Amino acid sequence: MRTAATCRLGRQLLSDVDGQIVRLAGHRDSGDPVDMMPHPGLRRISELDPSRDYEEIYRLHATIEFPWDIARALEMALYRTYCVPSIGSLLHETQEFEQRAQKRYDDTSLLLGEALKFGLNSERGRAAVRRINQIHSRFSISNEDMLYVLSVFVVVPLRWLDRFGWRAVTETERRATYTYYREFGLRLGIRDIPETREELFAFCDAYESEHFAHTPANARVGTATRELFVGWFWFAPAPLVRMGVHALLDPPVLAAFGFPPAPHPVVRALETALRTRARLVSLLPARRRPSYAQDSWTVRSYPRGYEIGELGPDGSRRPGASERRVRRARGKGTPMGQ
Ligand code: HEM
Question: Which protein residues touch ligand 1 with a CB less than 6 Å away?
Answer without folding.
Answer: 87, 90-91, 94, 96-97, 104, 107-108, 111-112, 132, 135-136, 139, 141, 145-146, 149-150, 185, 188, 312-313
